[in-house]
């Protein structure tokens, strides 16, 4: 009886607390975005820096909420052959994980649960890129009340999932991101050198003056396109049979068209492709992380991964055959086959680190700096105090 009461209490309080923190902070971020967009005349560069601050604050909010309701440890394993040792490290003074990531990169990853992208965004945060992350989302999310406005200001890329339309969208958005990263884009006051037949701006491919500010980026992509579940695995098998490709046990067949287009468009500024593989403790090879650690399980039932394993390796852009569609498709299939083998071993031994002489592993908490976490909690706390003060004064006179 007591355990049932505790469960019901948690079922009510955790979502309420999480939603209160989230909505309070989001309203402040959106208000700041709207205020500077419409009432304070600032330069394009200053406005972008402010929007980047709100973007970084957004991941601060999400990580702070998850740290409270689903505190996890993170174990990061990197390959020494492609990522310098100690790229990821634990700051003993601040007790947080920090990194030295390349400033212009694409991160690709397997997709198991809805919060995968939060972990990838947090990885960018550790490398001081929390405000320079770009994510591809379904077009319908652009119209979500409040959040849609914020995501538009974040300059996230909204896709129809119809390549005829998405190709132009990608070319326009990624072209600007690439040009800005090289100091040759609109954030540096530059104009396109021409416009192609599809109406997409063509930017100078040269490197801007050292005096021009550059704008780094981390583009997060899930080539599988959806979560790994029993249903999507079945669809992946059907698609594999149709195109004559063997499917995998722990990942879905990846889609290569969008990723190849992204790499080609960003190539003038792109430093590296980070291939990330995520594994969750408590998930066996015959189970699905989505069924164990879905949003309902995390927020209502206190079921969450106590340890999140993240394996990262890097590919140099020049080593990827992006000029030939068939070769690129074969390259990505090989990457996903290796990812599937990596996960197969992970489910058997419980770690991605199989040779300490070839790999570097650290472990720490999934969290942000204490100062930023306190700021994320400050507004909801003040609002809650004022609310209850009003309620008590109303009833008690």
UniProtKB/TrEMBL annotation:
<keyword id="KW-1133">Transmembrane helix</keyword>
<feature type="domain" description="Phospholipid/glycerol acyltransferase">
    <location>
        <begin position="105"/>
        <end position="260"/>
    </location>
</feature>
<dbReference type="GO" id="GO:0016746">
    <property type="term" value="F:acyltransferase activity"/>
</dbReference>
<keyword id="KW-0812">Transmembrane</keyword>
<keyword id="KW-0808">Transferase</keyword>
<protein>
    <submittedName>
        <fullName>Similar to Saccharomyces cerevisiae YDR018C Probable membrane protein with three predicted transmembrane domains</fullName>
    </submittedName>
</protein>
<keyword id="KW-0472">Membrane</keyword>
<keyword id="KW-0012">Acyltransferase</keyword>
<feature type="transmembrane region" description="Helical">
    <location>
        <begin position="12"/>
        <end position="36"/>
    </location>
</feature>
<comment type="similarity">
    <text>Belongs to the 1-acyl-sn-glycerol-3-phosphate acyltransferase family.</text>
</comment>
<dbReference type="InterPro" id="IPR032098">
    <property type="entry name" value="Acyltransf_C"/>
</dbReference>
<dbReference type="Pfam" id="PF01553">
    <property type="entry name" value="Acyltransferase"/>
</dbReference>
<dbReference type="Pfam" id="PF16076">
    <property type="entry name" value="Acyltransf_C"/>
</dbReference>
<dbReference type="GO" id="GO:0005783">
    <property type="term" value="C:endoplasmic reticulum"/>
</dbReference>
<dbReference type="GO" id="GO:0036149">
    <property type="term" value="P:phosphatidylinositol acyl-chain remodeling"/>
</dbReference>
<feature type="transmembrane region" description="Helical">
    <location>
        <begin position="375"/>
        <end position="396"/>
    </location>
</feature>
<dbReference type="InterPro" id="IPR002123">
    <property type="entry name" value="Plipid/glycerol_acylTrfase"/>
</dbReference>
């Amino acid at each position: 009886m007591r355990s049932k009461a505790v469960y019901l209490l948690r079922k009510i309080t955790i979502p309420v607390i999480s939603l209160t923190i989230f909505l309070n902070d989001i309203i402040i971020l959106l208000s700041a975005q709207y205020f500077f967009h419409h009432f304070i005349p600032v330069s394009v560069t200053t406005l972008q820096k402010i929007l980047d601050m709100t973007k970084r604050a957004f991941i601060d909010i999400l990580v702070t909420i998850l740290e409270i309701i689903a505190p996890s440890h993170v174990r990061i394993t990197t390959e020494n052959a492609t990522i310098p040792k100690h790229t990821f490290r634990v700051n003993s003074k601040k007790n947080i994980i920090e990194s030295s990531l390349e400033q212009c990169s694409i991160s690709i990853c397997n997709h198991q649960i809805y919060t995968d992208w939060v972990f990838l965004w947090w990885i960018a945060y550790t490398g001081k890129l929390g405000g320079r992350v770009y994510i591809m989302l379904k077009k319908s999310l652009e119209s979500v009340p409040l959040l849609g406005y914020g995501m538009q200001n974040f300059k996230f890329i909204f896709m129809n999932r119809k390549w005829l339309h998405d190709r132009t969208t990608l070319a326009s958005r990624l072209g600007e991101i690439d040009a800005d990263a090289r100091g040759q884009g609109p954030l540096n006051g530059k104009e396109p050198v021409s416009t192609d037949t599809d109406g997409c701006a063509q930017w100078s491919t040269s490197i801007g003056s050292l005096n021009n500010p550059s704008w780094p980026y981390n583009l997060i992509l899930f080539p599988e396109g959806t979560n790994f579940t029993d249903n999507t695995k079945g669809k992946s098998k059907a698609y594999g049979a149709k195109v004559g490709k063997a499917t995998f046990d722990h990942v879905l067949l990846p889609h290569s068209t969008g990723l190849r287009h992204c790499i080609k468009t960003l190539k003038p500024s792109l430093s590296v492709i980070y291939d990330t593989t995520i594994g969750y403790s408590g998930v066996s090879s015959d189970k699905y992380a989505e069924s164990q650690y879905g949003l309902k399980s995390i927020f209502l039932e206190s079921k969450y991964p106590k340890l999140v394993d993240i394996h990262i390796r890097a590919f140099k852009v020049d080593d990827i055959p992006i000029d030939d569609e068939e070769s690129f498709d074969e390259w990505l299939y090989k990457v996903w086959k290796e990812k599937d083998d990596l996960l197969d071993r992970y489910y058997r031994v419980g770690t991605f680190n199989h040779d300490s002489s070839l790999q570097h592993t650290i472990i720490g908490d999934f969290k942000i700096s204490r100062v930023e976490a306190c700021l994320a909690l400050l507004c909801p706390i003040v609002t809650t105090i004022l609310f209850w003060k009003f309620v008590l004064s109303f009833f008690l006179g």
